[in-house]
Write a structure and sequence with these properties.
Layout: H1 3-16, E1 20-22, E2 25-29, E3 33-41, E4 48-56, H2 68-72, E5 78-81, H3 98-119, H4 123-131, H5 139-149
Antiparallel strand pairs: 1-2, 2-3, 3-4, 4-5
Length: 150
């Protein structure tokens, strides 16, 4: 499988996990946040970087919708990537059996992407992740989040 074929398979697995496709990425909306998945192609090799971006509704006086600018935005209010454990599935410079790559991709969604985007679908969930040290929040985003929680 090449990287283009992988992107299509990634989209299928994202759809199986209730993500919608738009503008070359995938997103899931909740009343409080939008989660965006974007595969960023590297300029340094045949691999992708998975960008997971969370946009908090109302932060910085903005209401977000799944537009091209949002999907392609370099950063969200909260940002995450694939974990080290799953990085190899995005690297096409290193051989990996196609069936193993797909199996690990499904495992990545089950063990990391879905739990993370579910937890960050609410402001309270984001605060809980930050309080437990699982994520870091920029101070400006933390101030906005605190303001929204009042």
């Amino acid at each position: 499988m090449n990287s283009k074929e992988f992107k299509s398979i990634f989209g299928s697995v994202a759809k199986e996990n209730d993500f919608l496709q738009a503008f070359g990425g995938w997103y899931k909306e909740s009343p409080e946040c939008i989660s965006v998945l974007e595969l960023q192609k590297s300029n340094f090799g045949d691999y992708y970087i998975l960008n997971i971006k969370i946009f908090i509704q109302g932060s910085f006086d903005r209401i977000y919708s799944p537009t091209k600018d949002l999907i392609k935005s370099p950063m969200g209010d909260i940002n995450e990537n694939e974990t080290d454990k799953y990085r190899e599935i995005f690297d096409f410079d290193k051989p990996l059996d196609d069936s193993l790559r797909i199996e690990k991709l499904k495992e990545l969604f089950k063990n990391h992407i879905v739990p993370f985007t579910t937890q960050t679908s609410t402001r309270l969930g984001i605060i809980e992740l930050e309080t437990s040290g699982q994520i870091s929040i920029l101070s400006s985003v933390k101030k906005e989040l605190d303001k929204l929680m009042k």
